[in-house]
TrEMBL record:
Protein name: ABC transporter ATP-binding protein
Transmembrane segments: 62-84, 138-155, 161-184, 244-266, 272-290
Keyword tags: ATP-binding, Membrane, Nucleotide-binding, Transmembrane, Transmembrane helix
Matches recorded under CDD domains: ABC_6TM_LmrA_like
InterPro entries: AAA+_ATPase, ABC1_TM_dom, ABC1_TM_sf, ABC_transporter-like_ATP-bd, ABC_transporter-like_CS, P-loop_NTPase, Type_1_exporter
Domain ABC transporter residue range list: 340-575
SMART domains: AAA
PANTHER family xref list: ATP-BINDING CASSETTE SUB-FAMILY B MEMBER 10, MITOCHONDRIAL, ATP-DEPENDENT PERMEASE MDL1, MITOCHONDRIAL
Length: 582
């Protein structure tokens, strides 16, 4: 499906979602029309029946036809309803496919600026509104409009004067409803925004539930969620109020039309302009008008609510995303390790924020371990984010194997890299799911080897179902050290040509720390390893250390060279790292 531009009007967006299902929609619409047509024929047959009665003719034929029409009307109506609902569900599905694909392709910079809970609400709650929009508004406009025109035509055939009276009444009602419609849109948009805020507040609290509880903040967080829910309630009730008013105006207009037609029609019967049968038929049509008019009013109201949702969906589609590419093949065994170069990189996270990198330059040859050290906030993790192309430098170049990463295919670039984030996220699912996350095709032997390298074997034997044990949302059933090692194992299974390891700031116990150091040293013999180091033990074995401060590289060298050559390094080694020195 080609996504319409973000500025496209809601109806164009809806049509784009509907396009793949247009045949089913047309079938549903035709069935609805057939339902309408069988309904339309009813007053005519009734008129005939009254004629038969007054002429003392047998009414069995007309009665039979009437029954047949009633049954056909119900049967076709049910089938049409089913086809339409099914199509509407398919439209919701198409919108969800399109939106969720866009969500997972979002650039990290785009995600930085939004609340994940709100995005979640857009994918779940806002898309649901398209269901009613498809059935009620799209079909409502089509069938309601056609039925209305059909009914008016039939009325015109019965008596043009009474038709003029009816149209006059409807025109006045339309003006009133036209004034109400924008209010429905505004309330609908606000209600959905509040649902988004509710999602964001819930995600915030549930994402840090331990901290929420430890801080005794349950009630405050609950109140924030409740406030958003209540705001949504208020706006939805407001929308319902305007909808009810519009519906009532429509209902009232048919009642007024009925009374006016009765008065004017009565006068016309008494003057002999029309007969009683015509008046009865016309009055039946007036009642019959009620349904398409209500359908149209509902269509307009649902269109407003749906277009509020569509504008929220379009906001996401407008966010910068990465191209949709299949994952690139992972490096083959024995692939050459990568070389990384930063050339005078200047970078800030967004144009309104200050620069984080002020001309970072360094070169890392293939193989070996390079440690990045520096005070908190120096820009070390940012180096990794730039290598992964989560963000692009404002100036300067980042090169992998001598080629500017801007010229690399992003999927191929990332396939070459294994990245272990500082907080080592573990995803909900089993331990095996987590290990194979970055290398779904890795075989059992590779998994066993990586478990040995990362010293996870004892964990696996201890877990009740071994590798198939569910590790909980965000790996809550694992310890901090285990989570780190799982994250490293996950990265290693990709046989990366470049391993980026953002060391956790938390301290590991001595055994774990030694294990990790040995693991990283072993990996560095095979591949290029960059470590953002928070432990002296990691740094002392590094082939080179890049000292960073305030977005600049101050010095590059080995531990021994830097202890004497870099005052900042000497200070870091003497203070920050000292705790871990034996
Ligand atoms: N997504 C982001 N948006 C805006 N600013 C950010 C973002 N990520 C990091 N920063 C800012 O960039 C600066 C450098 O962050 P970075 O994570 O690179 O530091 P670091 O040297 O790795 O620190 P630490 O040792 O504490 O992990 C910090 O001041 C941080 O506040």
């Amino acid at each position: 499906m080609s996504t319409p531009p973000a500025s496209a009007p809601p109806w164009r967006v809806l049509l784009a979602y509907v396009r793949p299902h247009r045949k089913a929609l047309v079938a549903g619409a035709l069935l609805s029309l057939a339902t309408g047509a069988t309904g339309l024929a009813l007053p005519l047959v009734a008129q005939e029946l009254i004629g038969d009665l007054s002429a003392d003719r047998s009414i069995s034929g007309a009665l039979m036809l009437l029954s047949l029409l009633v049954v056909a009307n119900a049967g076709i109506g049910a089938l049409g309803g089913y086809v339409l609902q099914r199509t509407a569900e398919s439209v919701v599905l198409t919108a969800r496919h399109s939106l969720t694909s866009a969500l997972l392709r979002l650039r990290i910079s785009a995600v930085d600026a939004v609340e994940p809970g709100d995005l979640l609400a857009r994918a779940t709650s806002d898309t649901t509104l398209l269901r009613a929009m498809t059935t009620n508004s799209l079909i409502g406009f089509g069938t309601g409009g056609l039925t209305l025109v059909g009914t008016l035509l039939m009325m015109g055939l019965v008596d043009p004067v009474l038709l003029a009276v009816t149209v006059g009444v409807i025109a006045v009602a339309s003006l009133v409803i036209g004034g109400i419609v924008p209010l429905i849109n505004r309330a609908g948009k606000r209600a959905q925004e509040s649902v988004g805020r509710m999602g964001a507040a819930l995600e915030r609290a549930l994402g840090a539930l331990r901290t929420v509880k430890a801080s005794g903040a349950e009630r405050r967080e609950r109140d924030a969620v409740h406030r958003a829910a209540e705001e949504s309630w208020r706006e939805s009730v407001r929308a319902a109020k305007w909808q009810a008013l519009a519906g009532n105006t429509a209902g009232l207009s048919t009642q007024v039309a009925f009374i006016t037609v009765l008065a004017v029609g009565g006068a016309r019967v008494s003057t002999g302009a029309i007969d009683v049968g015509a008046l009865v038929a016309f009055l039946l049509y007036v009642f019959y008008l009620m349904s398409p008019i209500q359908q149209l009013v509902t269509a307009v109201a649902q269109y407003q609510l749906g277009s509020a949702a569509i504008s929220r969906i379009q906001e996401v589609q407008a966010l910068p995303g990465e191209p949709d590419r299949p994952p690139a093949p992972l490096p083959t065994p024995g692939a050459e390790p990568a070389a990384v170069t930063f050339e005078n990189v200047r970078f800030r996270y967004s144009p309104e924020l200050p620069y984080i990198h002020h001309g970072v330059t360094f070169a890392v040859p293939p193989r070996g371990m390079t440690a990045f050290v520096g005070p908190s906030g120096a820009g070390k993790t940012t180096v990794f984010s730039l290598i992964e192309r989560f963000y692009d430098p404002v100036e300067g170049r980042v090169l992998l194997d001598g080629l500017d990463i801007a010229e690399w295919d992003v999927a191929a670039l990332r396939a070459a890299i294994g990245y272990v984030e500082q907080d080592a996220p573990v995803l909900s699912g089993t331990l095996r799911d987590n290990l194979l996350f970055g290398a779904p095709d890795a075989d059992e032997a590779a998994v066993t080897a990586v478990l040995a390298t990362t010293r996870l074997e004892t964990l696996v034997t201890r877990l009740p179902e071994g590798l198939d044990t569910v590790v909980g949302h965000r790996g809550t059933k694992l310890s901090g050290g285990e989570r780190q090692r799982v994250a490293i194992a996950r990265a290693l299974l990709r046989r990366p040509r470049l391993l980026l390891l953002d060391e956790a700031t938390s301290q590991l116990d001595a055994v774990n720390e030694a294990a990790l150091r040995d693991t990283v040293a072993a990996v560095a013999r095979e591949t290029t390893v960059l470590v953002v180091a928070h432990r002296l033990s990691t740094v002392t074995t590094a082939d080179r250390i890049v000292v960073m401060d305030n977005g600049r590289v101050l010095a590059v060298g080995t531990h021994t060279e830097l202890v004497n050559g870099s005052p900042l390094y000497a200070e870091l080694a003497a203070t920050q790292f000292l705790a871990t020195v034996e």
